[in-house]
Amino acid sequence: MDNREAQIEVKDIPEMHVAYLRHHGPYAGDSELFGRMFQKLFGWAGPRGLVGGDTKVLSIYEEDPATIDEQGLRMDVAISVPAGAAAEGEISTRTLPAGRYAVGHFEITADQYREAWVTMMNRSLPEAGYKPSAGPCLEMYLNDPGHDPKAMHIVDIYIPVEPL
What we know:
This protein has helices at about 30-45, 115-130, and strands at about 5-15, 15-25, 55-60, 75-80, 90-95, 100-110, 130, 135-140, 155-164. It is an alpha+beta fold. Strands 1, 2, 3, 4, 5, 6, 7, 8 and 9 form a nine-stranded antiparallel β-sheet that branches. The longest helix has 16 residues, at about 115-130. The two termini are about 25 Å apart.
């Protein structure tokens, strides 16, 4: 990944309603875990008519893995759904708050997610005059790497921010 090619901008994001499946514990680098969770989520959402061309696919991270034991981490895989969509079984719903986010656009391989996050946190935010604020961080997936000829992951990383 060439850090100079990362596209970063700060923008206000509206609230988003999501259906999600939660994981407790370590997740870094475990693509099989993410795959199983998304398969279960889409298996639930598809028959309910909740998947369409405008569906957003994302992961939600509640804690900074650098500051908490990995056994205490919480991560959700999620899709956008209409407000009022009903939860069922293991699937829950929530509203992600509106707010100001630094958004980084990356085209990376599966093993470059950590580098993308480090670029955002250690270089892009301070250079733009921002620091992380309270709230969950997101990865918004813009493609299916399984269908990309180079297996690239096109992803936007969202970090809630406030001025330094």
